[in-house]
Specification:
This protein is mainly alpha-helical and about 190 residues long. The protein has 2 domains: about 110 residues, Orthogonal Bundle (Rna Polymerase Sigma Factor, Chain: A), CATH 1.10.1740; about 70 residues, Winged helix-like DNA-binding domain superfamily/Winged helix DNA-binding domain (Arc Repressor Mutant, subunit A, Orthogonal Bundle). The protein is built from 8 helices and no strands. About 25% of the residues are buried.
Length: about 190
């Protein structure tokens, strides 16, 4: 994204936030339309389950609705949404683990993988291979990779979301990229930078 486009997005975001905070629900609706695809793509890749991703997407925006007055306007709104989505996924898996521990059911699958729309990859096969490689990453590496690459979330904010030092977040990203290259090479894609 060019600097001019980024500045315009920030200006649009602030205008829509002002509308929303001023009581105009159109501001929220436009922000939802602006960011739902990016948040959904992140959630789909984190969970591997389309229905769960849809549920968590709704929970994310409901939480944003309830807590918008706590939003620090000096921060990036999209990063704030990614932070909420991240927490909702963690909460879901914590709840699922507690439930599974009580039931004693350790069998079960995460669900089916679906390709998320991705404007930067036009080749369907390449997109499939990249999604498979992302799916092979260790969960914390996958999370950092998706937050950074899909969400454009700054490493400082990723570190805050994941409650770790920034160097740990950077290290996880480095390992994610290294492991992605290995996975893609196994799948016949070499020379990925």
């Amino acid at each position: 994204m060019t600097e001019k486009a980024m500045d315009q997005r920030v200006a649009d975001e602030r205008r829509l936030l002002d509308m929303w905070l001023g009581g105009d629900p159109g501001g929220f609706s436009e922000l939802y339309e602006m960011y739902k695809g990016r948040i959904f793509g992140f959630l789909l890749r984190m969970t591997g389950d389309r229905y769960l991703a849809e549920d968590v997407l709704q929970e994310t925006f409901f939480a944003a609705l309830r807590n918008v007055h706590q939003f620090d306007r000096s921060r990036n709104f999209l990063s704030w949404l990614f932070g909420i989505a991240h927490k909702r996924v963690i909460d879901h898996y914590r709840h699922a683990k507690v439930e599974a521990d009580h039931i004693g059911d350790t069998g079960g699958s995460v669900g089916s993988k679906f390709d998320a729309p991705d404007e930067t990859l036009s080749n369907k096969r390449l997109r499939k291979l990249v999604n498979e490689a992302v799916g092979e990453l260790e969960p914390t590496q996958r999370e950092v990779f998706l937050l950074r690459e899909l969400g454009g979330v700054p490493f400082k904010e990723i570190a805050e979301m994941m409650d770790c030092p920034i160097n740990t977040a950077l290290g996880r990203m480095h390992l994610a990229i290294k492991n992605m290259r290995k996975e893609l090479k196994k799948r016949g894609i070499d020379g990925v930078r």
